[in-house]
Amino acid sequence: MSKRIGKRVLGATLALTLVATTSLVTAAEIEPAVVFDMGGKFDKSFNEGVYNGVEKFKAETGIKYREFEVTNETQREQALARMASKGADPVLGVGFAQAPAIEKVAKDHPKTRFAIIDAVVDLPNVRSVVFKEQEGSFLVGVLAAMASKTGKVGFVGGMDIPLIRRFACGYVQGVKHAKADAEVYQNMTGTTPSAWNDPTKGGELARSQFDRGADVVYAAAGGTGLGVYQAAADSGKLAIGVDSNQNYLHPGTMLTSMLKRVDVAAYKAFMDAKSGDFKTGVQVLGLAEGGIDWALDEHNKKLITADMKAAVEKAKAGIVDGSIKVHDYMADNSCPG
Amino acid sequence: MTDTWLLAVLTLDATIRVAAPLILAAMAGLFSERSGIVDIGLEGKMLAGAFAAAATAAVTGSAWLGLAVAIAVSSSLALLHGLACITYRGNQVVSGVAINVLVAGLTVVLGIAWFDQGGQTPPLSQAARFAPIKLPFADALHDIPWLGDLYHELISGHNLLVYVALAAVPATWWVVYRTRFGLRLRAVGETPAAVDTAGVSVELLRYRAVLITGMLCGIAGAYLSIGQSAGFVRDMTAGKGYIALAALIFGKWRPVPALLACLLFGFLDAVATRLQGIELPGIGQAPVALIQALPYALTVILLAGFIGKAVAPKAIGVPYVKER
């Protein structure tokens, strides 16, 4: 009796194991993983964009992904390494801050494929996705110049690094494109990483620009930007969001947002891996590739006139077909004009 | 000319906005330090207050409740500091640093756990913040040349907590120099044994002092998160507690000089903000890093050359032991 039960149990276990293995095989085409950066996946900005992208992938393919939210600097490398050693492939890192960690972990796990958004890591098993921020900044610069009544507009950057100068430079070119005699005030919040998280300083910088006559301000400053948008709302001036659509933060005073479609980049990285054509190397997404755009929705449609919309669409077409050249600050570390 | 005047007034306006939390924190530190308790933990208590205010305001939608909870949280941290330093006679600097480290981590962890926004609190609506107060006749008097701008921009249009900060200075002066409690407070920071001999409890006095410190730090924190901005962001105090402590030492532990030191720091900050990206005659455009180092460099120069010796309360940092 007991022998029979034992056999039955054994049989059942075997069957179960078989089922488990087969299901594992079908679903184990790829085991993608994503490591979100500081800010977390609901940061209403960069990380949330990536989250939306990988969620879309999950909804369409039914393939689950592993995830980790980094809460301090030292966790980046550990999290990436753990994903890789658990067999995840591809592993997606979010944000330029993860570049050194990806570089190290990708060397240790040469068979695992990695992708990083917003930075370049030059290794054979890494896909680096970067954006032409200057093109999107150019577009919102056009809008800022047209929306400004004083002919003076502002820019508030986060940490003073070439990437942020690239935003500023594209913005200035856009402003001058729409209104050659317009003035642009530029401020950087700081020179240390704390400049990404200082909304009070951001608000003060925006106010100082308003005091000098600016009436539209564009912030590319992470959490610091929230203070800029708040200051604009408090002073009745216009602000421009960045990375993801931030128009909803202060409907009525958010002129538009410069969109970096990190969701597209994340979705594509997983999708390419699934369909087997995951290419490594550098991918540059600009207006032409749909990786960059400007935001128009129900929160800001009253602020965008038909003229403005026509002008920005014209500029967009010009950039895509090459008749308008937007200078990239990072190409030669200088900005014309 | 009027443009320059307006710019000057607006710079002073920014000075007051930036200096307000420093003033509150410096007055907070004054009570604790004059009673003989070193308080490095101003920063942590402010940060805790900022988080508590923003979290409460986000959930309840009430700025007043936010302020109340900020004061409560900051006060309980102050009492913890008191417990460690007064009752258990621990090292006051270590206890203060411990509070700073604890709060820096705890606010982020709780923020992530409660709001899922990477340690931020959700952005607050206007109703959940202390809105700018327009003083009477601000608009009517705006057209008067010179003074109109001064009244409209500089004196009117701040949020309530700015006025609280400015009122805290004469109030502190009055309490410390004109009341019995103040006399004993100063005495207990110099020679606690004398106070003890007079039959007054040293421990109770010091507890009352750190409690006041906690309350003022709570207001300072609430100012940051629900007055000046609209939400909590990790590490949003950004060293303001330490600057307030420096201002207190700068002002030789006296209310009015400490106020002036806070205003100086605020002014340098406001000027630095406005100097950035402007062509200076003869120098050209100054680098961002240089402009930002300016307030600190000036502080060192002023401290080294002009202020003279700052003498701390004699019994500061020394736990009081009744009998040896």
- The number of helical runs of chain A is 11
Which shape of chain A, going by the Cα principal axes?
globular
Unreliable residue runs of chain B:
none
SS class of chain A: alpha/beta
For the sheet with most strands of chain A, the description reads: 6 strands, parallel
Q: What class would the helix/strand composition of chain B place it in? A: mainly alpha
Radius of gyration of chain B, CA atoms, in whole angstroms: 21 Å
Q: Kindly, what is the distance between the CA atoms of the first and last residues of chain B, rounded to a whole number of angstroms?
A: 69 Å
Tally the beta strands of chain B. Answer: 4
User: Could you tell me the radius of gyration of chain A in angstroms?
Assistant: 23 Å
What is the N-to-C succession of helices and strands of chain A? HEHEHEHEEHEHEHEHEEHEEHH
Query: Please, how many domains of chain A?
Result: 2
**Assigned CATH architecture of the largest domain in chain A:** 3-Layer(aba) Sandwich
Fraction of residues in helix of chain B: 55-70%
Beta-strand share of residues of chain B: under 5%
